[in-house]
Amino acid sequence: MDYIQSLVETVRGAHVLDLSQTLEEHMPNFPTHSKFFHTLWGSYWHGGRSLNYQLVMNEHNGTHVDAPAHFISDAKPEAHTTIERVPVTRLIGRGVVLHCHGMKEGQLVPKDDVTRWERDHGSLQAGDIVLFDFGWATYWGLRPHDQRYVQDWPGVGMDAAEYLVGKGVAALGVDTLSPDPPAALAKDPIHPYVLEKQVLIIENLCNLEKLPDAFLFLALPLKIRGGSGSPIRALALV
User: Fold this and answer.
1) DSSP secondary structure string, 121-188?
2) How far apart are CA 127 and CA 95, in angstroms?
3) Which member of 19, 86, 93, 141 has the greatest number of CB atoms within 10 A?
4) What CA–CA distance (Å, rounded) separates 126 from 105?
5) pLDDT tens, 169-206?
């Protein structure tokens, strides 16, 4: 019981940063994905006794996590992991952030940037959640003010992705639509490689510029049977 009380006091005493975008209609989403709808279903304004809405959404709307099944088909059953089968501990652990401001559309973070971060801050560890702060969340906006966010963006290079997989990280995350910009998606995306290795991908994060170099990362996906991913409420405790 002393351990539980100590844990509760530590968590309550931590500063919590919300790393999730607000789910709302007309927010940015990947061009081929269906959109988010929030529809009034019942209300006290209309004579009912409570207020409730119906949600219609894609698994990849807003701040979300990709399960391996998002890109890995059931032709590879050992790697085709749907979201309800992903251990929740994969999204609880030490988070680290690489601040990559100044990168332009289409540019990719190379392995050298990751190893340079390690020289300054210490080695990445197995189970880490590695976040890339491009400053791109500043371009998040509701339609029609979403075009800078959705047309092109920076991402993570294949050599950096291979290095992170070799380190045994649990997940990587970005404050963009994808760690693969459009040109990379068309030619040599990291999505299939990373997800086949059971490294999760988190997209559309925000507030990464406020993070210290290391922190406690916590996010929980919905338990969707057969899901290719899920919205998450991503938090950092610092």
Assistant:
1) H----TT-EEEEE-SGGGG--STTTTHHHHH---EE-HHHHHHHHHHT-SEEEESSS-SS-HHHHHH-
2) 9
3) 19
4) 30
5) 999 999 999 999 999 999 999 999 999 999 999 999 99
Three-class SS string for 49-94? CCCEEEEECCCCCCCEEECHHHCCCCCCCCCCCCHHHCCHHHHEEE
Which among 69, 68, 58 has a CA at the least distance from the CA of 32? 58
Q: What is the DSSP code string of 216-233?
A: EEE--B---TT-SEEEB-
DSSP assignment of 3-51: HHHHHHHHHHHS-EEE-BPPP-TT----TTSPPPEEEEEE-GGGT-SS-
Other CB atoms closer than 10 Å to residue 218's CB: what's the count? 20
Are the beta carbons of 10 and 237 closer than 8 angstroms? Answer: no
Q: Report d(CA 170, CA 11) in Å as an integer.
A: 22
Q: The tokens of 91 are what?
A: 């999204």
Domains and CATH numbers, the chain: 15-21+58-237 (3.50.30.50)
Tokens of 42: 């019942």
